[in-house]
Amino acid sequence: MLRSVVTKSATIRHLSTKGINKSLTIGLIPGDGIGKEVIPAGKQVLQNLSSRHGLNFNFIDLEAGFQTFLDTGKALPDETVKVLKEQCQGVLFGAVQSPTTRVDNYSSPIVALRKELQLYANIRPVKSVAGAHSGKPVDMVIVRENTEDLYIKIEKSYKDQNGMRVAEATKRITEVATRKIAKIALDVALQRLKTNGKATLTVTHKSNVLSQSDGLFREICKDVYQANKDKYAGINYNEQIIDSMVYRMFREPEYFDVIVAPNLYGDILSDGAAALVGSLGVVPSANVGPDIVMGEPCHGSAPDIAGKGIANPIATIRSTALMLEFLGHKEAAQDIHKAVESNMRENKIKTPDLGGNSSTQNVVDDVLEKLAK
Q1: How far apart are CA 212 and CA 221, in angstroms?
Q2: Which of 7, 98, 106, 323 sits a CA distance of 20 to 30 A from 67?
Q3: Which interval of the chain is the signal sequence (predicted)?
C-alpha cells in the first residue's frame, strides 16, 4: 500500500478553512546555485500531473536570493512578496547562497519569506527507502517552529569594560507560536496513529539550561497535549533534551516518530537526520501557513556543483508532493511519492551524491516515466 511521506498513508488535512482548489497558481523561486536546476524538476512533475488529476497549474517566475541582492540591493524583492500574497496558493523555493563573510544589509530571504507569509511550521519528513540505503530503517517527521527562536535575528555587538568585543543574540519563544506548532505536530502524529496504529510525539528542548525560553516551549507543548487528551488519545508523549536526542537519533533512529522542536534545534536535527537516509538531496520540507504552502528542499545552493547538471532533484520533487498534500491534493501527492520511491528502490538512476553517475534530468525523466505508469 502506498504510504504518504508525512502520514504513512493518509495526508494531514490542509490547515486553511478554504476549499480544495483544483486551479493552482504556483510561484517558482529558484534562488541561487543548484536551485536553478532543481526547481524546474518540480515544475515538470506538476505539469505531468495536470491531465490525470484534473489540476490546472499556473506558474509565476519570481526572484529572491543572494544574486538578486547583488543585482538589486534586495534579497527578497517587495514584488515577490506581493505576488505570493495576492496570487499564489503554493510556492517552490530552491536554495539560497550564504556568503562566507558578513555582507552589509544582506539578510536571508528564506527567513524573511517565512515571516512575511506566516509560514509558522516547517514539516520535514526523513524517510529511508528499502534498497536505496543500507542503514537502519528511518521514518520520522521533524516539525520545526519556523518564525522565532534565535531566527528573529535580534543581535548586537559592543565592547566590554576591557575593550574586548561581545556579541549577543536574543532567543524568543512565545506561547502563541508554541501552541500553534505543538498542535500541528500532534495532528501529524494523529494521522500516523490512525494509519499505523501507533504514534509518538517527542518534544525536544534544553530547559535544563534555558529554563525560561526552552522551559516555556516544553511547558506549552505538554499543556496542548494534556488539554486535548481525548483528541490525541493513543499518542505517546515523550521529551528529550537536545544533546542526548542527537545521540539517540543516530544510534536509534527507529525510536523516533514525530519530533517537535524550536526553530534552531529543528534546523540542526533535520539536516543531521539527512545523513541517516544518504543525502540532503533526498530530504524535502513544506513550510505551512494559513494561506499558502511552500515546498523547499533541505539542501543548500551547493556552489561546487552548480551548473554541472548533477544536482539531486529528489528533495525538490518530494517537496512538491508535500506542497500538494498540504493543499489538499492527496492522490496527486501519493503518485509522486510512489514514483520517487520506485526510482530510489531500483537504485540505478541516481546522482553522484548517492553514488551514481546520472544527471539531474536523467532522474527527472525516470520519475516522470514512473509517474506515467
Answers
A1: 14
A2: 323
A3: none
DSSP string, 118-131: T--EEEEEEE--TT
- CATH architecture type of domain 134-277: 3-Layer(aba) Sandwich (3.40)
**Orientation angle between helical segments 175-196 and 213-227, nearest 10 degrees:** 50
Q: Which helix (H) or strand (E) holds 236?
A: strand 235-241
- Cβ neighbours for 262, distance < 8 A, ≥ 6 positions apart: 144, 145, 148, 149, 173, 205, 214, 217
Grid cell, residue 253, equals 533512529
| 209-267 residue pLDDT tens | 999 999 999 999 999 999 999 999 999 999 999 999 999 999 999 999 999 999 999 99
Amino acid letter, residue 102: R
117 grid coordinates: 507569509
Amino acid at site 48 = N
In whole angstroms, give the CA distance from residue 10 to residue 5: 9
Domain ranges for the chain, please list them: 1-119+284-373, 134-277
Each residue of 146-178: pLDDT tens digit?
999 999 989 999 999 999 999 999 999 999 999
Strands 258-261, 23-31: pairing kind: unpaired
The number of CA neighbours under 13 Å toward the Cβ of 278 is: 24
CA-CA distances (angstroms) from residue 48 to 247, 305, 373? Answer: 41, 27, 12
C-alpha torsion sign, points 5, 7, 13, 16:
negative
CA distance 190 to 185: 9
Distance CA 234, CA 171 (A): 33
* CATH (one of 3.40.50.12160, 3.40.718.10, 2.60.120.1440, 3.40.225.10) for 1-119+284-373: 3.40.718.10
Contact 171, 213 (CB under 8 A): yes
Q: Which pTM value belongs to this model?
A: 0.88
